[in-house]
Amino acid sequence: MTLTGKVAIVTGSGRGLGLAYAQELARQGASVVVNDVDETAAAEAVDAIVGAGGTATAVVAPVGPTETAKALVDAAFDTYGRLDIVVTNAGVLRDTVLWKMSDDDFDTVIGVHLRGTFTVVREAAIRLREQGEGGRIIAIGSPTGQRGNFGQTNYAAAKAGIVGMVRTWAMELKKAGITVNAVIPVAATAMTATVPYFAAAVEADEKGEAMPAFFRHDLGFGTSADVSGLIAYLASDEASGVTGQAIGVGGDRLQLWSHPEPVATAYREGGWTYDALVESFPEAVGALQSVGETFPPLPEDLQRP
């Protein structure tokens, strides 16, 4: 087991992707601090890990407040004597279009995803630097944060912000031997279960059957277990040289997302006045960048009413 003797915190790990991450870290030998706002889900997650031969304890609290971050890190040290791995997975959705999104819709999602990642990682970084043995921080992003998505202003902002923080933290924590990476998962979740396009894949998953190759290969869409291997790898000593990266995983596909880079550069003596832009903008920048994700047509046998 590659993580024997390590201690991990996984936020939002009572169910879904977070539970899969916690279970895989435990399977690899780590002791896990499970976190969820649902006491029953947290307890069941601990029972599942312990029942499979692992070690886990739970902290029931919403991420975002500094008090929760301190409670999570304290639980790791008080229960297991150290901390090595942090996975910030907790999240909520409040999807609606811009003109209907309330302040509460926006603030709730930003508070859990973005602030929840910041406060937990800040507290962990303080203690990991004091411990002086390096560490692994893995923040969970989303394709929405990379490309945008209709009806998800709040979620897109939070997930894009997380990747921005990861790149900054990778630089700030390098000297302490702490790696920081973002994982961009694509998997069957409660959110994708309601999307008609993914119905055949979700249907297969719920039956315990393999998802059709179109989803696993062409779309890189799979199960929670398909993502958890990357989490364990990034948490291991084998990934000591991987930091500041945004890595996508899902189904049979692994992707390394690029850092934003200019795709076209043009120069004009005297600068770019309004008139110059009217005259030359299309030629200067070339093809514009696309927004959102475009999925290929579903094969006929995978279409559902």
Note the topology.
Blueprint: E1 7-10, H1 16-27, E2 31-36, H2 39-51, E3 55-60, H3 66-80, E4 85-88, H4 103-131, E5 135-140, H5 143-147, H6 153-172, E6 178-185, H7 199-206, H8 213-218, H9 224-235, E7 246-250, E8 253-257, H10 274-285
Parallel strand pairs: 1-2, 1-4, 2-3, 4-5, 5-6, 6-7
Antiparallel strand pairs: 7-8
Helix pairs in contact: 1-9, 3-4, 4-6
Describe the structure.
- This protein is of the alpha/beta class.
- The protein is 43% helix and 14% strand.
- It has ten helices and eight strands.
- Strands 3-2-1-4-5-6-7-8 form an eight-stranded mixed sheet, sandwiched between helices.
- Helix 2 (39-51) links the parallel strand 2 (31-36) and strand 3.
- Helix 3 (66-80) runs parallel beside helix 4 (103-131).
- The radius of gyration is 21 Å and the shape is globular.
- The model has no long low-confidence stretch (mean pLDDT 96).
Helical region count? 10
User: What structural category arises from helix and sheet content?
Assistant: alpha/beta
Topology as a string of helices (H) and strands (E): EHEHEHEHEHHEHHHEEH
User: Rough shape?
Assistant: globular
Strand count, sense and barrel status of the largest sheet are: 8 strands, mixed
Query: How many beta-strand segments?
Result: 8
Strand order of the largest sheet: 3-2-1-4-5-6-7-8
**Mean pLDDT over the residues:** 96
* Strand coverage percent: 5-15%
Regions with little confidence, pLDDT below 50 for 5+ residues: none
The portion of residues assigned to helices is 40-55%
Compute the separation of the termini in Å. Answer: 45 Å
Radius of gyration: 21 Å
